[in-house]
Amino acid sequence: MMSVEFPKSLWAATAPARALSAPLSGAEETDVAVIGAGFTGLSAAIEARKRGHAVTVVEGKAAGWGASGRNNGQVIPILTSAEPDVWVSRYGEAGKRMVRLIGNSGDVLFDLVREFDMQAEAEQNGWFQPAHSPGRVKLSQKRVEAWQRHGFPAELKDATECAELLGTDFWYGGMYNPTGGHINPLALAREMARVAEHLGAVIHEDSPVISYERAGSAWVIKTAQGTLKARALILATNAYTGELASRLAPRIARSVVPVLSWQMATEPVGDNLRRQILPGRQAVSDTRGDLRFFRYDARNRLITGGAVMGSFDVANRVRRKAARSLAEAFPDLGVPEMTHVWSGYIGMNWDRFPRVHKLGPDGWAWVGCNGRGVALGTSLGRELARAATGQPEDELALPVTEPDPFPVHGFVRRFAPTYLAWLKRQDRKEVKL
C-alpha cells in the first residue's frame, strides 16, 4: 500500500485516517485542474463540483501534507497587517470585495464544515488578539473601528474584559472577533478531500507536478507518470510552490519566502485550570511580532508555538521558549511539558499582502498567506473556483497583480529567521498612530 510520511504532529496522531488515492498515471482530461490538495485546492474542488464542473486535483504528497495540515488550526478572519482601508485604496472595487471575503472568511470555513458535517474538531467560539502593551490597545481600537466601518463584528475589549476572557492580567485589552475559532487542520483537510471525492472530484496523490503550460485552448499538467489536460487551472501550492519541483512556477515561488513555523502541544490541562485559563476556548494570538499564540484542542491540550533565531537545536529551543511564555502568562500552569513538536512553512512576503495572479486564460493562483492561511485559503479556493467556472472577474474578490520575485530570493530565505531580532526590538517600542 502506498504511504506518505507526515510530520509527527498532534494532528497526524488525531486526525481521521485517509487512504492515499492513486497517483496520476497515463493521460486524463478534466474541466478544472487543481494543483495542490490543501485548503485552497480542496475548497476549490468542492466549489467547482457544486457548480457542476468536472475537477481533478493533483497533489505531490497527500491531502493536507503541507501547510494546511501543520498549522496551529486558528481560524482568523483578518490578516496580519493588511488593513481593510489599504485594500480599498490599493485595489479599488476589487479591494472592497477582498475586504468582504476576508471579513467573512471565518463564516465561510465554519459554514462549509457544518454543511457537510465535517469531523474536524471545529469550534467557532471567537478569535482574540490581546494587546501586549498599552500603546497596542490604541492600535487594536483603530483596527476594530476599521473593520466595523466595513460592517464586520469586531469588538474592543478593555483590560478587565481581557483578563476575564484569558484568565490572566498579562495583556492590556485587545480586539475580539466572534466569527473566528479553531479546527484540527489535518482533520479538516482530510474531510475536505472526502467531501470533494463524494461530490465527484478526482484526487491523485503522490503525484508531484513537474510542469504546466498553456497549449492551444487547454492547460497541460505533467507529472512523472501522467498528463492531465484541462480547460482551467488553479495553482494552489502557496509556500510549497517550489519545494517539490523547483521549476514548477519559479517567479511565483520566489515572490514569497517559506519560513518555518513551529507548533507544539502540551499535556491535557486539568479541569480546574481549564476553567480558569481561557474559559471560553477562543483562539488567541497577540500583537507581538515575536508572536505569542495558543488555544485548546478537543482534548484540552494547549496548542502553541513560537520562533527562535539560528539553526542549532531549534526544536528543543523553541519548545522551551514556548513553555516559558505560557508559564509567564499563566503562572498557575507552571512550565508545561510539550508532548508534540512539529513545523511547516508559511509563505511570507515583504508587505504581508496576499497576492492573486492570473497565469493565463482560465488560469489562477494565489500566494502569501503570511500566517493567516486557514480561513483565507478556504475562502480564496472558493473564489478561484468561481473564476475558473465562468463567474465574471468583476464580481469576485480577486485583485490581480503580477508576481514580484525577491531579487536575491536564496539569500533572503536563508537569513529570514534573523528578522525575529528586529521584531523583538519593535515589540518593545510603542507604535505611532
TrEMBL record:
Keywords: Oxidoreductase. InterPro entries: FAD-dep_OxRdtase, FAD/NAD-bd_sf. Residues 31-386 form the FAD dependent oxidoreductase domain. Coiled coil: none annotated. Pfam families: DAO. This is FAD-dependent oxidoreductase. It comes from Ponticoccus alexandrii.
